[in-house]
Design brief:
The complex is a heterodimer. Chain A is mostly helical. Chain A has a domain at 59-297. Chain A has helices at residues 5-29, 34-46, 49-74, 82-100, 107-136, 140-160, 194-213, 215-225, 227-232, 237-264, 275-285, 290-306, 310-314, 320-347. In chain B, a hairpin with a 2-residue loop joins strand 9 and strand 10. In chain B, helix 4 packs across helix 5 (139-152), helix 12 packs across helix 13 (363-376) and helix 14 (392-401) packs parallel to helix 15 (421-436). In chain B, strands 13, 16, 17, 18, 19, 20 and 21 form a seven-stranded mixed beta sheet that branches. A six-stranded mixed beta sheet of chain B has the order 6-7-8-3-9-10, with helices on both faces. A four-stranded antiparallel beta sheet of chain B has the order 2-1-4-5, covered by helices on one side. Classes of the chains: A mainly alpha, B alpha/beta. The A-B interface holds A 213-216, 218-219, 221-222, 225-226, 228-236, 347-348 and B 10, 12-13, 43, 46, 52, 320-321, 324, 330, 332, 336-344, 348-349, 351-353, 356, 358-361, 402.
């Protein structure tokens, strides 16, 4: 076997086929028709301009998150805390909105300030995880996981405490903002907003450029591969780790702010909607390559949106999308592992 | 037992690592396997010990063909291999490491193992504590543990891959004594090395490999010149010794002290001047490695003054990056772990190490610069070669080529550890070019010949004690070996006082 594009392609295709086969088997086992389920997902994701727009709405935060975790993965860190960073972005965005909603400021500026506040929140939460790692010796996975729980608790406390709806607090979140402060959409009926889409595309473009073309990206890569050698080559190691945390937190913060200003128009309990974990999966699936991240994130968003109709039409749970995504990631990772082992055996390294 | 390797061939892609090698070894022999790096020694021994399968060829014990499918098979057949980096478990206690790999039985019989461990180590005069952590042992002690373990598992053939790299003179003598004794008891020992001297003093027979082929075999006493010719196809002369006039002060240390958990180094007084080469000798773990790191800010000194340059600028508390800005560079012995970044190409390394202007990587410029440096340092690789694909000698050349052009002081750990003679001479040629341009070099080595050959002055460490600078002219291997072992320090102090 040779390490070439074609063997990679064969292994990649094989992984996808296996993931689909296993999902099909599971649907069949539950007594449902797999073809009908897939058709339903496809229709749910692309059957009308409206659902297609919903896919793009869901693509935006996912793409932002993936752009962020590409930095932390490159520098060798597992930023599990991304969920909390999205949540803090949403909280800070809501906070700015609440402060400014009754001011004389133009709606555009209020939304801009809200997104800037979201960035601040995401960065602060990410730097907290980074500081725990750098100065406290807490593994970023444990630190991030802990901070995720803290962020969720903080969010719930705000919704049921200081920011609760007049009268009775509710799981449906805070009181919606005035409609003039909603992010403008392409048309009054659509949820698709051009500004967040632009931000997401800019984010992945920034990630691609910084990681592939700059000395900064190369330094991140060096620190990720071998921090000791990188330090000896003159690269300030922990500073680069903190910087990548900050960048990732910034993108996560934008994602949180977009959910608040453009999708829900209020703060809700599950504001991060699992986009952080899905983003980590997408990054792993594309082997941390910025170029492949955008289309794969779009595909994942399509699966998520497409599966929403499943419970109504077929009495299947919409978590089927998660099953497909999980299998995909697992099989691609296993396929990569097997390919690497076969190559190593051929070289006689085993 | 008569051992015969018959027509062993192994190909890796385009490289024929072993080309129909045949070798017969009688019992009770220490068989040397000589050859420079990449000659195919390791491949041959890996085939013999079941790590890899040959493309063709046979192995025969007393005329019977045997099949070795895996390392476990090999040890069942009585073939034990001691790797250059002993394959042990650092977090384990010595006795648990010893027990591991013992076939049969769900519950290990620790008592019996302990008794037999003590008997075995007493037989070879090894002083290993069974309760110690493997991580706390020196490389030499870890080798001793591996040898005991393999013997206990019933090894009748012992293969040692470059065993004298990184161990002290005293440990080497103990190892050689143990090997001689095993051979006298009827065992066959394969001793793989590129060090002529070790083979000469230990082995009864030697086989020489070059570029995958067996080019000659000899019995003791050996003809050195012929062996070198067989190894390299030519004789390699050592460079003439030159002594540059020392220049301005580069590094000044006054009553320096360094602490570690196990050791305290104190009262170091040292002045290093531009153009000088100072060799640091000492048994592994005598404090010299800590000291060298402290000279570059990689370890925080516990006391005294560490100063740079003619104006004795104090550097205590500075980081390695501060030292780098003052022209100090550190070259580690663990090249892939502490010097180079695996996964990055040569040209990416040059892009990182150069002082880049601008934000975006200038690929064309990086490519051109890499091609330049690869040519001028004679590195066998391309700009886009990943550093881990280079051989040890070429990795060391790559590290040298990454040095900033204006260095005032280079700190080197084991500059030529694991390298063949040609690479050694080349590396030192490059280092000496730097000296001629005014760079001072401070290096650690466990190779006494290297220290005597290349340093102007020598610093000896013994259990945290540090000698004054000794002129290399007044030393020889015998005397330096004694100092490393703690003998003759009194006269040294008197000489320093006089």
């Amino acid at each position: 076997m040779r390490d070439s594009k074609s063997t990679r392609l064969v292994f990649g295709a094989g992984s996808v086929v296996l993931a689909l086969a296993l999902t099909t088997a599971i649907i069949a086992l539950t007594g449902n028709d797999p073809i009908a389920a897939y058709r339903n997902i496809a229709q749910g994701a692309a059957g009308s301009p409206n659902v297609a727009a919903n896919v793009v709405v869901s693509w935006v935060p996912l793409l932002l998150v993936v752009s962020g975790v590409l930095f932390t993965f490159t520098v060798g860190l597992w930023n599990i805390g991304i969920e909390g960073q999205i949540t803090l972005g949403a909280i800070f965005a809501t906070w700015a909105m609440r402060l400014l909603q009754d001011s004389a400021m133009a709606p555009g500026w209020v939304i801009a300030a809200s997104i800037a506040a979201g960035i601040l929140g995401g960065v602060l939460w990410a730097l907290l995880a980074g500081a725990l790692k750098t100065f406290g010796g807490v593994n970023e996975i444990f630190g991030g996981l802990g901070l995720n729980f803290v962020a969720t608790a903080l969010n719930l406390w705000l919704i049921f405490g200081p920011w609760k709806r007049p009268g009775v607090a509710s799981m449906s979140g805070t009181l919606p903002f005035a409609e003039r402060l909603w992010m403008p959409t392409v048309s009054p009926q659509s949820r698709l907003a051009p500004v967040p889409l632009g931000l997401a595309l800019a984010a992945i473009a920034i990630a691609f450029t910084l990681l592939k073309g700059t000395y900064f990206g190369l330094r991140l890569k060096a620190v990720g591969r071998n921090p000791t050698s990188a330090y000896r080559l003159g690269i300030p190691t922990w500073q680069h780790m903190m910087l990548s945390f900050a960048l990732c937190g910034a993108f996560a913060g934008v994602a949180g702010a977009v959910q608040v200003t453009s999708v829900y128009h209020r703060l809700i309990p599950s504001i991060s909607s699992g986009y952080g974990y899905t983003g980590l999966m997408v990054a792993m699936l594309v082997n941390f390559s910025p170029a492949a991240a955008a289309p794969v994130a779009l595909f994942f968003a399509a699966l998520n949106v497409g599966a929403i109709q499943l419970p109504i039409v077929l009495k299947l749970d919409s978590s089927l999308a998660g099953v497909i995504q999980g299998f995909l990631v697992l099989f691609v990772l296993v396929g990569n592992g097997i390919r690497t082992r076969l190559l190593a055996r051929r070289k006689g390294a085993l | 037992m008569n051992i015969e390797l018959r027509g062993i061939s192994k190909r890796f892609g385009a490289v024929l690592a072993n080309d129909a090698i045949s070798l017969a070894v009688p019992p009770a022999t220490i068989q040397g396997i000589l050859g420079e790096n990449g000659a195919g020694k390791s491949t041959l021994m890996k085939v013999f010990s079941g790590f890899i399968q040959p493309d063709s060829g046979q192995i025969l014990f007393d005329g019977e063909p045997i099949h070795i499918a895996s390392p476990a098979d090999a040890i069942r057949l009585g073939i034990g291999m001691l790797h250059q980096d002993p394959l042990d478990f650092p977090p384990f206690q010595v006795i648990d490491d010893f027990l591991l790999g013992r076939p049969g039985g769900l519950i290990p019989d620790r008592k019996r193992a302990l008794r037999e461990f003590r008997e075995l180590s007493a037989r070879f005069d090894f002083s290993l504590s069974p309760e110690a952590r493997v991580a706390s042992l020196t490389v030499g002690e870890r080798q001793q543990l591996e040898i005991l373990r393999l013997l206990w598992l019933g090894a009748k053939v012992l293969i040692l891959d470059e065993p004298t790299t990184g161990i002290s003179q005293a440990q080497k003598e103990k190892l050689f004594a143990a090997l001689r004794r095993l051979a006298a008891e009827g065992m066959t020992v394969f001793f793989v090395s590129h060090k002529l001297e070790d083979v000469r003093s230990l082995c009864g027979r030697a086989a020489v490999l070059r570029q995958g082929a067996l080019v000659g075999a000899m019995e003791a006493p050996f003809d050195d010149e012929r062996l070198v010719r067989m190894m390299f196809g030519k004789e390699v002369p050592l460079a003439e010794k030159t002594r540059p006039a020392p220049g301005k002060k580069v590094l000044t240390i006054k009553t320096g002290a360094i602490d570690s958990l196990r050791l305290r180094v104190k009262d170091v007084n040292l002045e290093v001047r531009a153009g000088e080469t100072i060799g640091i000798a000492g048994m592994e773990g005598s404090g010299q490695d800590l000291f060298l790191r402290a000279c570059g800010g990689l370890v925080e000194p516990a006391g005294g003054q560490f100063c740079l340059d003619e104006d004795e600028r104090p550097m205590n508390g500075s980081t390695y990056h501060d030292y780098m800005r003052s022209g100090v560079t550190y070259l580690p012995a663990a090249r892939l772990e502490k010097g180079l970044v695996p996964g990055l190409s040569l040209s990416e390394h040059y892009a990182l190490a150069g002082k880049p202007r601008g934000v975006f990587i200038d690929r064309a410029e990086a490519q051109a610069r890499s091609a330049d440096l690869i040519a001028s340092y004679n590195i066998k690789g391309r700009p886009d070669s990943a550093v881990e694909s280079l051989s040890g000698g070429n990795q060391q050349r790559a590290l040298l080529s990454l040095l900033p052009s204006a260095s005032s002081l280079i700190l080197v750990e084991h500059p030529t550890r694991g390298l063949d003679i040609e690479s050694t001479i080349y590396i030192w040629g490059k280092l000496k070019e730097r000296c001629a341009a005014g760079t001072a070099i401070l290096f650690i080595s466990s190779d006494l010949d290297e220290i005597l050959q290349y340093s102007d002055k020598v610093l000896v460490f013994f259990a945290g004690k540090v000698s004054p600078l000794i002129d290399t002219e007044s030393l020889n291997v015998q005397k330096l070996g004694e100092l490393i072992g703690g003998i003759g320090w009194e006269t040294l102090k008197e000489a320093a006082r006089a």
